User: What shape does this take?
Amino acid sequence: MTIYSQASWTDEDGDRYEPLLSEKASKTVDIEDSPLPDELTRDSLELPAPAEPELARHYTRLSQMNYGVESGPFPLGSCTMKYNPSFTEDIAALPAAAVHPDRPDRTVQGTLGLSYRLQDYLGRIGGMDAVTLQPPAGAAGEFTGIQIAKAYHQHNGDDRSEVVIPDSAHGTNFATAAMAGYDVVELPSGDDGRVDIEALEAAVSQETAALMLTNPNTLGLFERDIERIADIVHDAGGLLYYDGANLNALLGRARPGDMGFDVMHYNVHKTFATPHGGGGPGAGPVGVTEELAPFLPDPHVRQSDGGYEYYSPDHSIGKVHGYYGNWPVLVKAFAYITRLGDAGLADASAKAVLNANYLAERIPYEVPFGPFHHEFVASAGEQDAADVAKGMLDHGVHPPTTKWPEIVDEALMTEPTEGESKRSLDQLAAAFEAVHAEDDGTLASAPRRTAAGRIDQVSAARNPRLSWQSLDSDD
Amino acid sequence: MTSPYAPHTEAETEAMLEAVGVDDIEALFDVPDAVAFDGAFGIPAHGEREARREAARLLGRNDDLTEFLGRGHYAHYVPSVVDDLASRSEFLTSYTQYQPEVAQGFLQALFEYQSMLVELTGLDVANCSMYDEATALGEAATLSQRVRSVSGETILVPDHLRSGKRAVLENYADGPGLTVGSYPMADGQADVDALAELCDDDVAMVYAETPTVRGVIEERLADIGALAEDHDALFCLGSDPVALALLERPADVGADVVVGDAASLGTGTAYGFGLGMFVTREEYLRQVPGRLVGASEDSDGRRAYTLTLQTREQHIRKERATSNICTNQAWVALRAAMHAAWLGPDGLVDLAEDCVTRPRDLAERLDEVVGVQSPVHDGHNFREVVAHTDQPAHAVVEDLAAEGYAVHEIGEHMIQVAATEVTAEAEDGLIGALSEVAK
Assistant: This one.
């Protein structure tokens, strides 16, 4: 059993951890003798003013009070927290990668060439005819894809009002459809955790703009009826949207394009190992069939005489990012794909799926649905899944995603990724076992070995204090 | 080849397969034959050194130009300590802080970032990032539709708004059925009289920028704010953290929402990679898009931080969420906060003042070049200056590129030049090259 204690810095007065920068070194500067007339300037500015050694110590301490993939196992379901290879950082930091977005095409042929290569790689991996790199995250990719579907239908003089989404889908799918102005039709899952064909037939109509589907779905299950599903949606004139969150399960085994999907997004911060950065940045390239390519965002890269150029697709939806998306993230994804190639990518999926199956075999919690791929959803049963998560923190592992998807009681959605060794999976299994054996009272007071103890969510929301300005002097 | 990032030895793989009860990993894939793929993408594998060489080879085709470019994406000097600290793997490889007890460090850093934006704007609530300025503007437009005090369905923006920003706004406006209209600019700033003519009760939001896309400091912000208020519209102001260190506080000119690109701190030029700031009034708190970090207490009674008010967000509220955003730009925000703290208020104000004096001085030098008149606009500059060229601007820009310098071509006889401390030593060379090509 691994013993874990997260570093924690408690301030000398005992009622806070590492003090805020504003509490350490605040300074107010009056704006005087500025080169602007007084009426155009503010009066003063108050900000922290730490000397560099203090700054370095502050953020180093904060980093010690934070858990990342390099700290330990991170089997957060649906998030694909795989190891982020260091060399990709160096490539993204190359001076030649750091150009201004308003440079003329012919002066940035390297940038366009790398973009073109990445578009091509992603197209091959997803079985898609054309790929845009512009969406800056998965949800932005969804928005791009649904706007493309909308533009396609409108171009055909076909106004549709609904998007169909399974109840087990990511929350972003529902929010995206609403953002694009569609009504959401929620599809209840069948008893086996997959799309219920009869329910789908009932839900799909002439109003269906698209079905948004994750495959394997959030339970890790492959939608075996995918061809039938595609036919039902296509026969009604709708399009099939693939949420790429779970693509790490299928690299080299199946491609969304071959399954009948018309449009998809890739989460490069999941499948292609770019770091999650504490919540972002990611990137959410979107792939489409040839038929939808004229609707891609503006601009798009293509080959020209001996080089590359941007062009505006004929019926482009316009833009989804002010410039070209999260460029450094795309460079890291390119580096990862280039490193692994066909065999490495296929092996990543193989080991990810093996790891999930091995871990599921080893834990004491029931896994109601299968056969699953890169992730599984266990049930905490009589225990509260949120408490289970807090208990696991004390064992030096990050817990699974909890209480979602809702079709499993007290869900523990677990995705160990290929980066975990057998030894690390055994550590994870031991953590599950230890927590499983604990009584509710002990779990309710967990965690005890983390930088902070259990945090009061209710009072945080009831009395929002969202800046140091909003803290009382006795906070 | 196996993945170099999967640690399994053959013996371990065998032991794991045995535990699972299958002979072969392929047996674990439940993919029907009809949709199975043979794995031949046609992408060759590379060693790490070779992969680095290949990327460097591709990128090496970029011309090495000294960039006097801005118009929304700016370069300031980023101190080494930012790269060093932000690259710590506990930050870089962590996830969204759904387990706050092991994520206090990042949460506190984001809380500090939010606080800095509150100070810079004088408004109450900053979220912990949007993708970029353009998407933040789009989110502000949709916010106007969720605010009860606002009626109307038109978003008014300056007619010179950078086209990319407007195109993003149009996409965000499409779902809720908003119309994007424009008001004219005059001499690099908003034509407030013309805006007054255009403002009616159908206007839901008025958007203005300072500095404007022409690099001019907007002087009539309070008048624009008053116009918006008169018509029950939101006033959304676009700016950036460096400018805000010196210019009038948005709260003092009636701004309801401040958006902008905060990556001008902490991240150098990166092909448009941004950090969307989003700051607003407390009364709109429950309608804010994106993540918010709040202070609370832990079980030991100590102040601790957590993501809060998550019932606004997609993973809880689904189609009734305030936005679909999930992954954001948290790590870019971390960098911006580090850079701001490194500068401190003195350094940040000094930097902002340099952004006023440097283009002013450069404008004078440009004006001395035969064939160039500068500045075109009368107002105060920030980072950038617009110049008239007697020769066609296109030819001037092309010829400058041949000399190793990049400037913007913004009209038949107009160029725009951005100048910060990063290009200080190259200004003489630019003037020299321009003297050759502009006559």
The two ends of chain B are 60 Å apart (CA to CA). Chain B touches chain A through 190 residues (CB under 8 Å). Chain B has a mean pLDDT of 97.
